[in-house]
Structures are given as C-alpha cells and as structure tokens.
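Suppose a classmate hands you a notebook page containing two proteins, each written out with its sequence and a corresponding row of structure tokens. How would you begin to make sense of it? This section walks through that situation. The first entry is reproduced here exactly as it would appear on such a page.
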Amino acid sequence: MLLGRSAERARLDDLLGRCRLGTGGAMVLDGEAGIGKTALLDYAAGIATGMRVLRGRGIESESCLPFHGLWDLLQPVLDRLPTIPSAQAAALEQAFALAAAEGHDRFSAFVAVHSLLTSASEVEPIVVICDDVHWIDVVSAEALLFTARRIAQDPIAILFGARTGEHPHLDFVGVPTLTVSGLDRRTSADLLAACAGRTLAPKTEDRLIRAAAGNPLAMTEAVAMLSPAQLSGEQELPDPLPAGQTIASGLARILGGQPASARQALAVAAASDTGELRPILSALTVLGLGADDLQVMEGKRVISIGNERLEFRHPLLRAAAYDLASADERRSAHRALAGAMTGRADSASRAWHLAAAAIGPDELAAQALEAAALDAQARGDLNSAAAAFDKASSLSAAREMRVRRSMSAATALSMVGRVPEAIHLLDRAAGETADPVQLAAIRSLRGVAGTWSGRPREAHDNLVAEALEVMNVDPASAASMLTIATINRYTTGDIKEALKTARLSRTALRKSGGRNLVRGELFYLSALLLSGKGTSVKRGLMKIAGSMNEIDIADSALDIGMLGLDLIWLEEYELARQKLEHLLSRAREAGAIGVLVYPMTVVSELEFRTGNWPSSFVAATEAVTLGTEFKQVNALTYALVTLARIEAAMGQDAESRLHSEAASSLAAELDTGSIITYASSVEGFRALGNNRPEEAVAHLAMLPDYVVGNGMGNPNAVQWRPDLIEAAVLCGRQDLARQQLEIFEAERDRTGSQWAAITSARCRGLLADDDGFEGHFLRALDGHPAFAA
C-alpha cells in the first residue's frame, strides 16, 4: 500500500488519464536511493487498467551490454515488428541479435523503437516503465528518450525512475521531471508503525523520522535492525542509527576506489556528533590527514562543507560511513576528536569520544562521563544523564564505582519513566556487591522504581522481608523500603496492613537517628487518616506540609502526591494545590516526566472536588497518556478510574464506561483493591446520574463490607456512600439508606469532614417526610461554601 504521496499520484493519474484519451507523454521520477520512486512506479502500473504495461529496470552489472535494456522492455511487443518499415525492423532485429549485422546505424534503431511502440499503441494504450534508468545501457536509454520526446500525439506514456546525481550521461531535456522527496512527518509515522507492527514510542519515532529525513527505505531498514525494546522506547537508540544494507552498499561502492586517507577522513567526520568543522579538522591533523582528504568525499557528493560545518548528504550516510570503518579506525577517530575538544562547552562530547575510544575499563573516560551526567542532570536532561552514568559504570574498573554509577543511572531512568531499564540496572548492580548496606540501598531504589509498575501486594511482601533482613545493619534503608511497602499496601486497599507497615517504618527511622523521619511520619499519618482518625492527624499533616518547601524530585514525587491526597481529604484544597503545582513545576523543569503520573492524577482529584471539571479532565487525560507510555500500570489504574469519574460527571457515558472497565480489568489482574473500590463507586455514580438507581445500588452495595474489612474509615477518600443512600431511597429501600446514613454520620463526626456534614444533611432530607425535608436541605446549603452567608 502506498502511503501519502497525494501530489505525486495526482501527476501520474493525469499522465495516464491523458494517455487513455490518445495524448502521450513522459516523465522522469528523480530522487535519492530508497525515496519511493519504485513504489510510485508500482502505483502507476497498478492504475494502468485497460493499458498494456511494458516494464523493465536497469541492472548495474549489465549496463555495458548495448540494447540489453530495450530487449527486456520490448520483448512483449516484438510481434508488431512486421507492421513497421522493413529497414527499421531490420535495424532493431540486428540490435537485438535477431539477424546478421549489416551496418545499420543507431538512429535507425531509435526510430524503430518509436515506430514499434506507436504500432503497439494502435491496439491499446501503452505504458512503458523503466526503473533505475541510470543503470540501463546508454544506447537503450537514448532510444527511449528519443521516443519520449516524440509521443505527444500517441497513446503512449513513458516513465523513468532515476537516482539523483547518478545519471550525468543521460539527457532528459524535454522530458518533465517529478522530483520525489521525503515523506511528510505524519506519513513517516504511519510507515514506521506499519513496519514495526505497533505504534512507536514518541521519542523513538521522532529520532527515526529525523534520521531518515523522510526516506521510506531508510525507515524500513532501520526498524528492521532495531530491537523491540528500542522500538518501544525502553532502550536508547544507537548513535549513529543503523543505515541498512541498501545505503551501506551504495556508499561502499563509492569508497571502493578511494584512497585510504579519504576513507579515514570520512570515518572522522562520521564519528563527529556535531558536524562542527573545527574539531574535525583538528582531529584530521592529529591523524596526519588534511582537508584535501575530506574534499575527495565532497566531490563524490557524500558530504558538503560550508559555514564552518560538515554535513552528510543524507543522515544515514553518516551511519553507513561509520559502519564501514574498521573498529581501529573508529577508535582512532574518536580519540583524535576527544583531543580536539578542550572547551567547557565540549566536555560532554569529549567524554563520549573518550568512551568510544576506550578498550576495556578506562577510569579517565568514566570520570569524564560522570561529570557530563551530573551536568546533564542539573540541566534537566535526565535521559542523557542516565546514558552517561550507565556508560561510566561499564567503563569503571572498581566494583564499588560500577555499582554507585549504575544506581545513579537507575535513579535518572526512573524519573523519566523508563522503569524496566532502571530495574535491570539495579538488578545488575545487586549482582556485583555483597555489601549489605549497598544492597539495602539498591533494594530501596528498586522498590521506588517498581512501585507503580508491578503487583503491589507482592512488592509489599518482598520489601518488608528485605527490610527486616537489613534492619540492624542499615535501619535508614530498611525504613525507606518499609515506606515504599506502605504505599504498595495503600494500593491494595488494605489500610489495616498499611498501618502496620507504616509503624514498622517509623520504628526503623527512629532507630536510624531520624534520617527521612518526615517521610515515615507522613505515610504513618496517611494510614491513620484513611482509617478514619481526625483532629490529631490533621495537626501532624499540616506540620509536615509546612516543612516540605524545598524538594528533591527523585525522593519527593511520591511524598508530595501522597501529601496532596491527604490535604484533599482534609479539605485543605488551596494548600494541596500549592504543593502539587510546586512539584509539577520542578519536575517539568528537571525533565522528570516519569514521576508525573501519580501527582497529575491527584491534581485531577483536586480539580474535580473544587468544581474545575475541564482542568480535572485535562489532568486525568495526561496522567493516562503518561501512564500508558511509561507502562506504570499501578498508577495507570488510578488515572483511568479518575478519568472515568470526571467523564461520568460530564455525561460522557461511553468513554467513562470504557475507562472504568479498563481500570477494573487491570486492577483485578494486579490485585489493586483500592482501584476496584473506586471503579465500583464510579459505576454507581454513573448509573445514578442516568436515573438507574437499581443498577447504582447493585454496584455500590458491595462496598460497605469491603471498606470495613480493610479498615477504611475516612468518608472523603472515596466519596461513594451518599450515592448509595440516594439510590436506595429512589429504589424504596429506606432501611438500607438509613443504615448507611448512620455509618456515614459516624464517619462525619469522627473525621470532622465538612463535605460529609453537608452531604449527610442532604441525605437526611431525602429520607425526611414532606413536612421535614426542607430544613435538612437548607442546612446542607448553608454549609456549602458557595451558599454560605
């Protein structure tokens, strides 16, 4: 299937359409290798219904055989030879070695080709397609061009496919040219997805499109040479990208007859990641080469030089040049380039050139890479920081340095959402050390990395077991693991167990001397808040909120997200907004988009409860997009159900049902009970909003036993009980409604929730008789900020 190319197809449609009506014409499709000329010629052949298609192509190894190209093209119509003048027929027969040579000139053969095609077109319109005409023998090409200029009054169309810059011996004067350029971005993306059999990660797609510059063959070959992990964005792409066999073979032909100095100079140019001419020339001098060696390649149209820059004619030619160089030539090029880079601005490039020149461990290169990683981290380029830390680790001779640098790389990867890679690095680091303190730190980082990407119950149990193992050796790391385990317990919906784990974390923190004591206290108080504790918990959480001003993105994203939820449940909406906006601003500045999924979902919660539904919808949508892209499945379930709730409120029932079912299915697979509870509340909310109270009761009546059994006693956490009360009233089930209202009012009194006070008054009004309902409703209105005097 031909993607895009609407303008080119229109030109071909027009040419063949006119041919059917008796007006002939020719066209040259000119473009670089792999740009899509053959695909367009295939399209032309496919639309040539009611026409006779004669098709051939030039073959480089046969370009020295006179008339060979014509023979391939014209064989199907040679039965028309008796219909053209005998002298012309004889000239063509001799050219094709069908008769003994008698000295006819080439002009007679050219005229014969024209006559033969004209005669054949009297039976049906003729379409002649000659691909790779730059490789066809010269005399055949000239004969076809002779005919192409003389068919205006005949139903004949001649199409040539020619590679740009490789047909200086052919004269296309008088033949219109259709320049075939690269595909546009949208079509390139469609092609990549079709080749990969899936939608690519945005950063992978962007890199491939830029590298291929719209060349379909380059994109097709590059996709075929990349691993599934690279296509999904889980692993970085190589630099340069693989060029593919076609482009590499073309460059190899050009280099075949060139001196070794020119090939080495081209390897230096290919090894340069900037194309800046100054360091390239300096590197050439170190290697005993000069600008003249580059100019050889410029003359062959491989590179262009100007404005203090060197550029390859096509991005993948750089990759081909690099691949064709020997390993020793590549290392020499990188070593020379590193020596040419002495400025502060060149430090990162110098580090990577030193790494590429290294054979085995090289601490000098490792140190340079670590410095580059720290600089990238400070600038918010966490992907570059991760790559530099990882490479530095691989070049480190000392085991302790390898482990420490792998941990730094894993932390950066987690922050940009590349969790599977982070976990892989941490597992590798764990296999390199027997130090219990270092192992505890690695396990703690692994717990953070996997919090939103695995099964929370299993993660909790593993973290607790590992924490207890190192409690006496490294209580600070044990406390960190127990804190992460507490978060995983929240996700399962088991607040009783979460509270037990949080208490263990506090014990470990106090044993460690207080490091991260605020974090441990936060999650302990969060568990108490969810269980239904009120005033004293609020004082503690407000104190913590006041202390969390300056934050470390790597450590604080989960903390601020949890604190934001706590403040929402405490109805401290403006303070929650302040803390969340500060986190999101810092995370975006640092490039830590991988930490945004959970806090963005909390933002959606906040905006929904404060009546800003459009903003709630935008935040939930972004969280779902990021959760899907980064495969943070636990965070994704929360984002999906939050999006489903705002969609239900906005009347988007089909979308809400789709997202709620997706959240429930994923939650059941992961055993995340809190999301199952939330999804049931959304289903009930949507049914009630659509005047289906019996269905609402069916969804909501299963929740009381679940939340009581798991120790959830805060009515603000998931606001479902008033919907059950209202649905029960509408169904005539007053006993159920009264029972649930008593429980709800007890939760109200225990927690001091203003929302619960307002809503319970409304529920009392629903259950009151005709003479008593008004007072309850007025109390509900009086308690609401929008109606309060």
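The notebook's second entry, a different protein, reads as follows.
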Amino acid sequence: MFLNYIKITLRNLYKEKMYAAINIAGLSIGIACCIILGLFLRSELTYDRYNLKHKRIFEIESEFNTNGKISYLSTSSRVLAPLLARDYPEIESYVRFKLIGRTLVRYEEESFYSTRVALADDTVFDIFTYDIIYGDPKTALSDPHSMAISESFAKKIFGDINPIGKVIATDSDLNKITLVFADLPENSFRRYDALLSINRLQDDEDQFKDLLKLPFSTTYLLMPEGYKAESFQGKVESIYSKYAGESMETEGVSVRGWLQPIAEIHQNPEVPVFTAVAIFILLVACINYINLATARSMKRDREVGMRKVLGATRPQLIAQFLGESIFLTMIALLIGLVIVEAVTAFSPVNDLLGRQELMNFYDEPNLLLWMMCFGLVVGLISGIYPAFYLSSVQPLSTLTGTTRSGKHSFRMRQSLMLIQFIISMAVIISMILMVLQMQYVSNKPLGFKKENKAEIRLQGAELIGKYPIIKNELLKDSRILDVSGSRTGTVAAVPSRSYIEDNDGVIGEPQVLNFKEVKEDFIKTMGMEIVRGRDFSSDLSTNIGNSALVTESLVKKMGWEEPLGKRIENDLGMFKVIGVVKDFHYRSLHEQMEPLVIINVQIDSLNLSSLLKLRPTEYLVAHISNKDISGALKYIENVFKNINPKSLFEYEFLEDYLDGRYRRESRLMKLIGIFAGICILISCLGLFGLAALDTEQRTKEIGVRKVLGSSTFQIIVMLSRGILLIVLAASVIASLIAYYIIDEWLTNFAYHIGINPIVFVLSVAIAIAVAFGTVALQSFKTANENPVKALRYE
C-alpha cells in the first residue's frame, strides 16, 4: 500500500507540474529560512551551556550607588571573591577574568595586536570546560608569568608545532606558554585568545579597603550542587561593610551584589524578533500549501469518490494525502538544505547573524535527524487540513456530477491569504521605518564634525611621551589640517566623583560628573563651538592641569547664571571653568546627552602604577583634507614608523567608529529587509498558483464575458478584485501591528523619528501593485485569448 501511495503521489505531481513547483519552491525557501534562523536561535539560547558545571557557576553582578547615582555592573572588585571565599565556606572556588583588551604581542620578528587577552585565576580550567591540547591545566597559570593560549592563537604564531615553553612578549611583559586549549564555541562569553596569570597582581591586605571600591574584573563563583542564587543575598554587602564600610559611608557610596547563573547571562534582544520571523515565514509557506491543495480539490473530487466506491476508507485517504504533503516537504527540505549551504557559503548572512558557522553535519551528526523531524512536522502542519477536507467528499455526489459548493474552503483560503499578507505587510512597513530611523541617526548633527577624522591609538608609555614630536611632524604636511588627542578616545568620557565650588568658595555636595581629558586644540580639531569664554591655550601656563571647559547641559543642570570662574574638583585636581562648549553627542543616540567636563591634564605615563603601566593608552586624532586621504594616511604611517619603529600603525575613521555604535540595529534592519522580501516572494508564489487555478476554473466564464464585450483589462480586474480587497484589509491590520512594533523599538533611542503616515500609504500602494501584477501576469494570457477557445474548454 505504501508503494501504491508513492506511485499516486508521483503521478499527481507529474500531471500538475506547476502546482508541485510552486509548493516545493515556497516550502523550500521557507524551510531554508527557518533552518538558518533556527540554528542561530539554538546558538543564542544555549550560551555557555557547554560547560559541564554550568548549573553551579554564577557571576557576581553589582549595583553601585554614588550619592544617588546608580550604576549596574557585571564587574566587581578583584579582592571581593577572595574575601567572600574566606568568610563563606560554601563557595567551593572562584575565578576572575580581567579583559586587558588590545595588547601588542611579539614573538621573534612577528608582532600584532590582539583584542582578546585577559588575566585569569589558575582555577579557570577547573571551573570552566576547556578541551586541553597541550599542557597541564592544574598548574598552567600558577606562575605569575605563565600564559595559556587558544589553538588558533598558537597556530597564528607557531604553526603546528607544540609551543609549550616558548616565551611571548605582551606589552612590557615576558610570558611563558604553559597550556594550549581548543578554541571555545561561538556561544561563549569568554572567547579569549590568551589568558595571563592574575597572580602577577600582588595585593596587600592594607589595600583591600581601597581596592573594594574599584570594579575591576568579572568574577565567577563555583557553588554546591542545587545552590539557589537567592541564598547569596546580603553577602556582598556584609563584605563591604566589614572591610570598607566607614570610608564608603563617608564618601556616600554603597554597593549591592547578587548572583546570576551563567546560562542566563546572555540576553539577546534579537531572539524574540528572529523567533517571530522564523514562525511567520514558515506559516506563510504552509499557508501556500493549504490554499493550493484546497483550491485544486475540485480536480481531485472524482478521484476521491472513485477510491471510496472501490473500498478506500477515510483514514486511508487521510493517510494518503498526509503522505503526499510529507513527501513534498521532504523534497523541499533537501532543496532547503542546499539553499542553506549555498547562502551561508556565498552570502554575508553569517556576518549579519554574527556567526562564523551555522551548520556542520560532520561535528553534529544528530543535526540531520533533527532536520528530518522538522520536515515531518512541517509536512503534517501543511497537510492536515487539506487531508481532512479532501477526504470528506461524498462519493455519490462526484459520480452524479454534483460538486461541492466550496464556500467553506473558499472562506478558509481567504482567511489564510489575509494572514499571509498581514505578516508580509507588517514586516515591510517595519523595515521601511527602521531604514528611516537609521538614516536619521546617520545624518543627525552631533555637535562636532565627524568627517575625515582619523583616530590613531598611541600604545605604550614610550609612544605617548612622543606625542608633541608626532604632532609637529604631522602638521608639516598641508593635507593634515589639525591634530589633537584624548586619553579616553575621541568620543568617550569617564565618570568621576566631583565637588563644585562656587565663586564665593562654597563647596556643594559630591556628585558624579563625566570627565574628558584632552590635548590642546581638541575643540578646534573636532569642529566644536565655544559659546562662552575661551579655549585652552598653551600660551597660558596656568591652563595646563588647572582649567576646564563645560558643556551647556552642565551649566543648565547646575543652574549657573555665570559659569566662568566656577571650580570643579576630582581626584585629578581642582579645575577652573574658563569656557562653555556647545552640547555635543559623545555618547550614542540611544542615550540622552549628558553634561560633560573637559580638562587638559598632562599625565606622565612613565610614572603610572604597575597596573596602569601594563596598558597605557592615549588617542591621537588627525583632521585630514579630503583632497588626498590615502596619501595623507601613508604620510602619517611613515611618521609613526620613523619616530617609533617598534610600534604598529593602526587607525580608524571616526565615522566608521560612530556607525559601529549602531551595528546591531543595522544588522537587524538588513535581515528584516531580506526576510520581508522572502515573505513577499512566498506570498506571491502562492498568489500566482491560486490565480492560475482560479483562472482555469473560470475559463468558460471568461469566454462568455469576452463575447459580451468585456475587455482584457476588465477581466483581469474582475479576477483580481477579491484579492485586492484582501490585501487592502491586510494592510490596515498590518499597519496597526507595525506601528506598535516600531513604536516600541524606537524607545531604544533617546533621539528618533516620528512615525510618518505616508510610510503606511506607500507600503499599501506597493502591496496592492505587487498583488495586482502577480494576478495579471497569470490571468493575462487566458483573458486575452479567443473566446471561442475558452467556450470549448473542458
């Protein structure tokens, strides 16, 4: 019987090639999209679960309250974990990670920068799961100058040889390689290339009081099996109270801490979006199958009636039709897998999803089994309604020539088509509004000129000390218009606890203000505007380390009528306000513009503490003429190489850096655009098939109308009228849904567009034009034929 069903299925598919092609195309595209999104979602929802002890590992998270200003941090003091382990024996172990970021790595003649270097405790390989290739994990990071590296990091430097015992230089330190571990999965927070021993930081207990106030590292605790995070409540507070309570109370600082299971740390806001998109695309593809299967039911009524007369039962017929649906879906699954392989290999979809590899049957053979189960489920979902509908025909009516009215199936098709276009239209409208918001973000004035600004990192105390020489050499070239620098990056600032002293010498309550340390000519180089007072000047020696510029928003916040002469004090010194700068966006447009203090401080990097001396960094910004940018960059590179041959020259344009702040939104917008197009494509495929069946069933009616004088255009309008009404109704509902979605999405931006009604009108017009064009394309041939031929149609 099974083979007989296969033969019937193949015979029907051969007889109706267009129907089969449309169904397979729609299902294969829908399945391919679902597989891609499903693999991405699987990766997102299983973050860090590869660790064998993940149920027992918790991250310490903190809330710092400084005079009412609250900051939530995933970092904590580096002495907190040792103190907790000392006072609370239920803590089995702990590990601290401190990302030291962009690090210069040298081995013999090879040198490069790595951004994934971290300090870590020697317990890291016991708490977290690593696949060890070379070395002993128990002693790998015991020595203060030991180093564990990833497999890809090792191959980059040493090739395929065993690097254990080799010595690598990082910044000013020499490190002996003691362990090589396999690269961690992409869905891991701690994908470091190199781990240095945190034992190189020697802390005296006399320093604990001060170190407790400094969030330094990400800290993880290994707790007993079944430990509840709620049981940890109050323990962090007790440590701070015990070791630094008096000084923190004086400074108006309080800290609260809690535990977060590592499997729950990663929260990607895109997950609900992509889950919905995957469901919607699959739903649109399944609706195509249901609509086409029920629309062609009249063609199969006689077949069903004859099979019932010959003894076929309804369950057998249901099994046959479900088998056809599953068979079609399995073909679509195979084609879908080919599409996935092609798309991931030859398109930027992996980059858009932020993944190097989505599907690998060699490493995960069970993946194919899951895919087959997925295909089976899709086949059942698609085929369940058509199977019950087709098998319900009465044999007597088919043999006597009496056909079903089809009103129920027609209403069902209309409802399903409405759902299809609601989904497609909502996605399209959302995508258009997202594009408009990103254009707004890109074009909004920021309060400074971002064009042609090259930001160059000055890495190391030696290179930082040569900044005046570098600046003088650069300005000798006419293509370089201005040069300045900053300690925190061109558009970044650091919060600091500060005191305000007015002109009468009265000091107010302490508060947290954002500070930015800059070099001379920063305001000029960045094209900012001073609206009151003056800029820093090297001609006035009192400016250096003693003067400050403030933004308009700070003046407004403090309620100053006369800001000039006010004094601001923090850990770096006392600063007199000499000018007011027009507000500028030094943060992304996700956040409100905050008050800022700009100071001109000269710090001797050679005399920094041992911790800061490990990674002294400053930034030089060069304003380049747009006449010969590449030539100017080449000149800058030569200047750097001549002044400090050991340094690696790297730069980034400020425009690119600022665009990177909205990379997630840009990726989401592009992906939504792609899937909007796919939704429309699948919907139009189904619409084309329905139009073909409708036109075929109404061939004689078309002939009669032609004889009675109807034009081709009138017939096309008659055939498409019902569909256009459905599209119009879908557009109204989709507009309401899209408005709610985008209104919610725009709350992520402190500065955003208004939702323009014209977008909805334009989207409706596009949808109607596409739907009408699809129907017209199919029905034009029949509507334009000789009516005699149509009247002879059987």
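A careful reader of the second entry would note: The two ends are 33 Å apart (CA to CA).
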